[in-house]
Design goal:
It is a single chain. By secondary structure, the protein is an alpha+beta fold. The chain has a single domain, classed as HIT family -  CDH-like (HIT family, subunit A), CATH 3.30.428.30. Helices cover 23% and strands 21% of the residues. It has helices at residues 2-11, 24-40, 95-101, 104-110, 143-151, 187-192, and strands spanning 48-50, 59-63, 71-75, 119-123, 136-141, 161-162, 173-177, 202-210, 216-224, 239-240. Strands 1, 2, 3, 4, 5, 6, 7, 8, 9 and 10 form a ten-stranded antiparallel β-sheet that branches. β1 and β2 form a beta hairpin. The longest helix is centred in the first third of the chain and has 17 residues, at 24-40.
Length: 248
């Protein structure tokens, strides 16, 4: 397990960089985690492998080498990323729902329960990632991002609109999801249904929220890459891999 993590750390570059092996995550999940789960019911080096609906609809949860509590949700099927048409096929897995449910891995690592607005899920654009296997980052949100979202929460509605303030130096679109869970709500579909056709140029960040009416929900953020402006659309930048919100 330690060897696999070391290899992952050597092969995977930061989100905005390039990886010497862009298939490192796929090799770990498909070459180690899935076979180990099938043969011994031990998913290592992953923390969990779920093949309940078959490998083509399964997923793995893997501790990222970066951060004290960052985990990744990775499909056990070959899915390139946010641009892959497979994520929008009717009946395709809702990886976001599974990723949100897996936030307990972050809390277990931190040995503390976090409020929902302290946690964020993120997927980077095709030009702002280092790996060519879909992976959703599960981790804490940056304290300043959390504060900015809270201050503008009443301005986020059920329709996509520009978020009033920059987040980590970039301008996002925002929409409110008034549901306690993501069962039946797929952020990939929410973005695609807005008319977006160049999915690969977009990043999505989902942050838990308690809405102004007291209901539990989410804020979904979208940024489109602008290479001339130096924006590669890496929503992972809104996460804090030191988890300062947990008092660490």
């Amino acid at each position: 397990m330690r060897v696999a993590w070391l290899l992952l750390g050597l092969l995977v570059a930061p989100a905005s960089g390039h990886a010497s092996n862009p298939s490192a995550l796929w090799n770990i999940v498909n070459g180690e985690c899935v076979p180990h789960e099938r043969d011994t019911r031990d998913p290592s080096p992953c923390s969990r492998v779920d093949l309940t609906d078959g490998q083509d609809k399964g997923f793995a949860i893997l501790k990222d080498t970066r951060g004290i509590a960052q985990f990744l949700l990775i499909p056990t099927a070959r899915v390139s990323g946010i641009e892959d048409p497979a994520i929008l096929v009717p009946g395709s897995p809702n990886y976001w729902d599974e990723a949100w449910q897996a936030r307990y891995f972050v809390e277990e690592r931190l040995q503390t329960e976090l409020p929902r607005d302290a946690l964020a899920l993120a997927i980077n654009s095709s030009v702002g990632r280092s790996q060519n296997q879909l992976h959703i980052h599960i981790d804490c949100v940056k304290p300043e991002v959390r504060a900015t979202l809270a201050a503008n929460l009443n301005k986020v509605t059920g329709v996509w609109a520009p978020f009033p303030e920059p987040l980590a130096g970039h301008h996002y679109q925002a929409i409110r999801i008034a549901h306690d869970t993501l069962e039946g709500v797929n952020p990939f579909r929410v973005l695609a249904d807005s008319g977006v056709r160049d999915m690969g140029m977009h990043t999505l960040v989902l942050v838990g929220a308690t809405l102004p009416d007291g209901q539990s929900g989410f804020v979904l953020l979208d940024d489109r890459a602008d290479l001339l402006a130096g924006d590669v659309a890496s929503g992972e930048q809104l996460q804090d891999h030191t988890c300062a919100v947990a008092g660490r």
